[in-house]
Amino acid sequence: MRLSVLGSHGTWPGTAGECSGYLVTSGSFNLWLDAGTGTFARLQEHVPPSDIDAVLITHGHADHFLDVIPAFYARHYGDLGEPGLPFYSPTGFMDLAALLVSENGRNVMAEAYAFDHLEAGRVVEIGPFRVTSFEMTHIGVYSLGYRIQAEGHTLAYTGDTGPCEEAIELARGADLFLCEATYQDPMDHTFFHLSAEQAAEHAARAGVRRLVLTHLTPALDPGVSLEQAAGLFDGPIDVATRDAVWEVGR
């Protein structure tokens, strides 16, 4: 199982950057995990739009799903993909997004995508991946994190979350924990995002093999985040950057 970073900036994209988005592959199966601003263009550096096999979105904030709209245009109007692409997400927000591209009230996005609405605790088989959903603590929106298993290995991804026990359970014993670390330094108001230190605390309690920090706001120095996380987690730590690739479990 391979994890490739398409974008990793938190909340907004910085100069020459993209928001959250990842390509997870096993064999020839391509799973687009979150689709933040700029990630569809980056995705096409790896695979053509027709070779996307499924989409998996954590929640309805624009920095995690906005590029499913240009992907819809490419597949539906550009004939760059068959209709009915499997699309997994929490309920609600894609109904609103579909209104932006409706044709005389017709939900054409539902023709390009085969929507399946997830909830916490549900387990789905997406190609070679076994995906378990966990509810995260995030402000104003129902947000899921995913435990993705294939080839005997586990990738855990928080999406966006504040401190919560569910994030620890999500990551329990994972080979790679892709964890949001939006902030630096202890912050009393960090209840809907994590700091680098909090991400490391969650990783340590979960007993993960490798921690990858992501969703840093563009103005932050990644080296500082790494330093702060290293004080609380003694395993390998990386920061997700564009073009970074990990073989999960190796």
Q: What best-fitting shape do the alpha-carbon axes yield?
A: globular
- Major sheet: 7 strands, mixed
What string gives the helices and strands in order? EEEHEHHEHHEEEEEHEHEHEE
> What is the level-2 CATH architecture name?
4-Layer Sandwich
Main sheet strand line-up: 6-5-4-3-2-1-14
Strand content: 25-35%
CATH superfamily: Ribonuclease Z/Hydroxyacylglutathione hydrolase-like
Calculate the terminal CA-CA distance, rounded to whole Å. 10 Å
What's the structural domain tally?
A: 1
Segments where pLDDT lies below 50 for 5+ residues?
A: none
Q: How many strand units?
A: 14
Topology:
Elements: E1 2-7, E2 21-26, E3 29-35, H1 39-43, E4 54-56, H2 62-65, H3 68-76, E5 85-90, H4 93-99, H5 109-112, E6 113-118, E7 123-126, E8 129-135, E9 144-150, E10 153-157, H6 165-171, E11 176-180, H7 196-206, E12 210-214, H8 222-230, E13 237-239, E14 245-247
Parallel strand pairs: 3-4, 4-5, 5-6, 10-11, 11-12, 12-13
Antiparallel strand pairs: 1-2, 1-14, 2-3, 7-8, 8-9, 9-10
Outline the structure in words.
22% of the residues lie in helices and 29% in strands. It has a seven-stranded mixed β-sheet with strand order 6-5-4-3-2-1-14. A seven-stranded mixed β-sheet has the order 7-8-9-10-11-12-13. Helix 6 packs across helix 7 and helix 7 packs across helix 8. The longest helix is centred in the last third of the chain and has 11 residues. The protein is globular, with a radius of gyration of 17 Å.
